[in-house]
Amino acid sequence: MEEYYETNKRRWNELVDIHAKSKEYDLENFIAGKNSLHRVELEKLGDVKGKRLLHLQCHFGLDTISWARLGAKVTGVDFSETAIELAREIAKKVGVDAEFVCSNVFDLTKVLEGEYDIVFTSYGVLCWLKDIDGWARIITHYLKKGGVFLLVESHPFMWVFDDASEELKLKYSYWHNEEPLSWEDDGTYADKDAKVTNKKSYEWQHTVSDVLNALIKAG
What we know:
Elements: H1 2-20, H2 27-31, H3 39-45, E1 52-56, H4 62-69, E2 73-78, H5 81-94, E3 98-102, E4 116-122, H6 132-142, E5 143-152, E6 181-184, E7 200-203, H7 208-218
């Protein structure tokens, strides 16, 4: 499993610079004051002022910093050293108090202590995790009693179709498999034309019931 994560990390380290320059992330306007959060998470969490918020798999921290701008006391976590370095630079540049920790989600208890009012994670995060039960236990570990966990994620059935087909054609299993799907991709969702050296990545499928049952078991 370590090999899979290291391969993914090499790719994500490379993608940081590409994403930071992309229109998708619009970093220039973000630094000028734009909020990167979407309506769904803003409405679900409401007023976060003064609340401690842990953001798992934060990439280079735009959503984390956006929560801080709304008054939350934030900690962002990502396994990419390059992403965390940039997140810290952006937070300093915009004058926001935000903590960023470089860690694999599963190793987080080795480097981060404390309890949080909110644990937040969103948009394309679950596919990078093999052990969904271990992920759920991390959430339970950090979420204080009476706290709120918010996951904003695509329905996993989206990922069973053949992207290369003009017809709606099933290609991949909906069910979780211990062995990941292996991809060789040039470009990235934020810049389809980008030239990427680290093309290989590994992903795991998790059904809705997998996620719900993991969270229930973790308490």
